[in-house]
Structure formats: structure tokens, C-alpha cells
Amino acid sequence: MLIVGEEINTSRPAVTEAVGKRDKGFITEIARKQVEAGAHYLDVNASTFLHEEPECLRWLVETIQSEIRVPLCLASNNPKAVSEALMRHEGQPMVNGVSLDPDHFAALAPVVGTKSCRVVAQCSSGKTPPETFEQKVQIGSELIEKLTAKGIALDRIYLDPCIQPMGVNSGMAITALEAMRELSNRYLGIHTICGLSGVSFGLPKRRLINSTFLAIAMAYGLTAAVLNPLDQQLMATVLAAEMILGRDDGCERYISAYQKGKV
Amino acid sequence: MLIVGEEINTSRPAVTEAVGKRDKGFITEIARKQVEAGAHYLDVNASTFLHEEPECLRWLVETIQSEIRVPLCLASNNPKAVSEALMRHEGQPMVNGVSLDPDHFAALAPVVGTKSCRVVAQCSSGKTPPETFEQKVQIGSELIEKLTAKGIALDRIYLDPCIQPMGVNSGMAITALEAMRELSNRYLGIHTICGLSGVSFGLPKRRLINSTFLAIAMAYGLTAAVLNPLDQQLMATVLAAEMILGRDDGCERYISAYQKGKV
Fold first, then answer.
1. What ipTM was assigned to the predicted interfaces of this complex?
2. Which residue of B208, B219, B251 is in closest CB contact with A166?
3. 3-class secondary structure for chain A?
């Protein structure tokens, strides 16, 4: 399971302040903690800075990678910001992401095609994601085929089924998971990814919902997740689920994590 | 999700003592608590009493049902004990269970065929359950066909994939779940059931494993579980998982349980 740490996002006021002040110590500290907790990639998102986004994203990439060897997931809809950040990035980057919205696709597909980066393919063609299983599969298929036509190999694609809050429509989570499974079977080799926090938005006991959702999504074939790796309940759920799903020979990683106090 | 409360089992010393003394108050209190916590059936197991098992099981059935309207799951390998308990039982009983072991099948199949009870079909043909997917599917299929040949309709059958501890073989849980899903697809209408506590035996943080396993098993199609309904983490996981799996319109049951302090 590929873990993308979500904590470096300027939607969080403390991160906005740190980026605004170019506070290198604060940013590298959050980065280090997430990597120590088990993140394989770190999401970096400076989209609230609007016109300054390219400069902020570039600074984040340089600042984090000057201290810590970790690849980054560039979360941005701004092709200039993504393009400039990609030029500074060391290792294999991930870009989150590209959707089937014509303007969005036209702006970002050329950028992600230029470097051998991993690409999050957002299963959406406009402002709101599709609602039915058939629509999701149709849009996901079309997007995957357009990306591969641009030379992006299937194993660089991370399909995001774009799960909307269950509080808005209680059937949305399972519809999205079923579409994700169908697309994984149809396009062998693609990865799948989703953010966790959205699914429980507006409901009580969100941590219970998020960890239960994570286990179920993994059973449906989810291979990567954007989450807070400092949430020990979530990370312990990942370890337990990988063991239950038969991906932890002799339960060694689970037991080792327990011995280190991580479960 | 059908919940079978597991607490009335003479493998627990307090229950053995209560059954030995015919302590009606103690037994009905555990029964009442489990039903209040959401159990639909109560497992009753007096197998440690050996030769006195028939008398003890009969007493348990009469004692519980004289106070509480709840159907029982008779957990016994003793055909005399099952047969006598069935005669006293009101409502639709469940019997746990029948395996493909020739002696076991010959002794119990006639007993469970006589009354319209629900039958747990244990996916096993001897002392240790089969290990591979193919063996499990083969044994499960043969057992289901033998039960239906005895006039037991598919919707009375609860297939138990007999999950062995992951600490013994880390691949056993997923193999059993995959076999369970295959058999559910092959014999439309059957139910599936499993006990939870065995899967985590010998591993640390068993409650984490049990609740994660429960969510994953439900994603694989599990429709009933033998568990401790007084474990609020497990019961909250059932509610969250049913909501995520699209079986809770408008999230109403989840929110209602939260308002009652059950999540």
C-alpha cells in the first residue's frame, strides 16, 4: 500500500503561515514526521496562494527535498506551478492530477506527459464527479485511454474514483468502489488511489468511518491512499488489512510494527 | 448483517459455573445484554459438559426463551443435545453446524433436516479445515449439495469458511474469504457466517485485527458473524461498514445509533 501523506496543504492555516514566511524548519519538520510514520510520498498543495502558487510550490519542493529524500505528490490545477515544480523535483514525482474536463486535460496532460511521473487520473469530467457506476466507468475508461494515448503507461496511472461524502448520498462510496474495481480489472496494471477524509464529511465519528472505509477500499483493490500518516489508527488499519489480505508473509511487518509501538 | 452473540459458551468459566448451578439470573442477564446490544441470535454452547451436554443445552434453551424472545444458535456436535434442544426451541433456530466429515454429517444432517432451522455449513471434511482455495471450494460445494439433497433450502444454509488463525498461516484468511465469495456466487441465496475471534489468535492487538477483518469480510460478502455484541468497537464497525457498503439509506441507522451512544 502506497501512503501519500496529506499534511503539507495550505488549506491548513499553520501551513499557509509557514509557506508565507518561508519557514523551512516548520515545513521540513512536518515532512520528516510523516516519512517517519510511514509515508512513501508527501502531498504538497499550495493552491490557496493563487497567483503565487508556482513560486510557493517550487519553494516547497526545493525546501523539502534539500533535507529529506522523499518523492512528492504535486497537488495543483495550475500547469505553470506543476511544470516548474517538476523541473526542481528529484526522483519520480506524482501529480494530482488530471481529469476529463476538457480545459483541465488540455492544460495538464502535456505537463505530466513530459516527465516519467506518476499521474492521478481523477474520475470526473466537470465540477462534480459522475454519480452512477456506468458514468464512472465510462469517464474513467475514456480518461485512461486518453492518458495512454499521450504515452503515459498504465503503471504510471493512479485512478482516483473521486468518492463524494456519504452524508450527501449514502450510496456514493460503494458505487465509486465498484467502478474502481471494474476499471482495475479492465485496465490491468493501473493503480488506484483515493483521499480518505472526504467520505466521512458531515458525519459523526469520522475516524471510525475513515478506518473502516480504508479496510473495505483495500478489499476492493485500492493500492494507494492520501491520508494523515500521523493518525496511528489509520496506519495500524493499513498494517492489519495488508496482513488479512495476505500481503504480509508470516505477519512479519505487523508484528515488527507492534514491537516498535506503531500498532 | 445478522449478529450471533457468542457470550453464552461454557468455555468461559463464569458460564460453566452458572450452568452447573442452574443460575437462571446470570444466564438471562447475559442474554438480555447481548440482545440489547444488537444480537439477532444468541449462540448457546455447553459442549464442555460432555455427557451432561444434552440436559445443559435443553436447560439453556428453556431458561433463555422463558424470559427473552430471541432465537438461538445451538452450537454442538452432539446429535442428541441438538435434537432435544430443537424440540424445546421457539422460533427459527440455527444449528452450528454440519461439516463434510462423514460421521459428523451422518449424525447431524438428519437432525437439522427435521425442523426448518438455519444450518451452519462448516467448510471442512475432517479435524483440520482444508488449506487451499480449490480444496475449500470443492468441500464447500459438496457440503452444500449434500445439504440441499436432504431438503435444506439454500437460504437456510450459512456457509462458514472456517478461518484459521493468521498467526499459524498468514495466507489463510484471504484464501478462506475468496473461497467464501466464490461459493456465494456459485450458490446464489446462501448466507455466509464466520466467527471472528479465531482469526487473530496468537497475534497482538486482537481487537484491531478483528474489526479490520470484519470490515474486509463484509466487503467479501459476509452476511452473518458470531461475535461479542458487547464489544462496541465491533458493533460500530458493523454499522459503519453497512453504511459504506450502501446498505443504510441516508446513513439513518448509523446516525441513529450514534445518537443513542452506540457508536
1. 0.94
2. B251
3. CEEEEEEEECCCHHHHHHHHCCCHHHHHHHHHHHHHCCCCEEEEECHHHHHHHHHHHHHHHHHHHHHCCCCEEEECCCHHHHHHHHHHCCCCCEEEEEECCHHHHHHHHHHHHHCCCEEEEECCCCCCCCCCHHHHHHHHHHHHHHHHHCCCCHHHEEEECCCCCCCCCCCHHHHHHHHHHHHHHHCCCCEEEEECHHHHCCCCCHHHHHHHHHHHHHHCCCCEEEECCCCHHHHHHHHHHHHHCCCCHHHHHHHHHHHCCCC
